[in-house]
Amino acid sequence: MLNLGVLASGRGSNFQAIIDEIEAGKLNASIKLLIVDNPHAYAIERAKKHSIEYLYINPKEFSSKNDFFRHSCAYRAYGHEARIFRVQRPDSL
After folding, report:
1. For residue 7, what pLDDT band results from cuts at 50, 70 and 90?
2. How confident is the model over 50-76, as pLDDT tens digits?
3. Are the beta carbons of 46 and 12 closer than 8 angstroms?
4. Which of 46, 68, 69, 70 is 20 to 30 A removed from 60 (C-alpha atoms)?
């Protein structure tokens, strides 16, 4: 099983899609941590609904978005080794 950490900043529709795939048995994974850069992101509500731990990290504390992502990816999901994924729409890459 793959332990996941997910980065999100908005509605969390891609985050929900990952949750749905896991719950449907199509993805052998467990989301251990949601990291958000927006304290009002709806993704937090999705995490709460599915009992997934979440963490807000203020991106203004970093000199660049890349520094923010590097810092976020350094987190371990509450004692679990986890791969951290930045989930975003392909058109925003």
Report:
1. confident
2. 999 998 888 888 888 777 777 666 655
3. yes
4. 46
What's the predicted TM-score (pTM) here?
0.76
Three-state secondary structure string covering the chain: CEEEEEEECCCCHHHHHHHHHHHCCCCCEEEEEEEECCCCCCHHHHHHHCCCCEEECCHHHCCCHHHHHHHHHCCCECCECCEEEECCCHHHC
Residues 6+ apart with CB under 8 A from 90: none
Digit-coded pLDDT (tens) for 25-54: 999 999 988 988 899 999 999 999 999 999
Order across the sheet with 2-8: list the strands: 54-56, 29-36, 2-8, 83-86
Cβ–Cβ under 8 Å, residues 21 and 27? yes
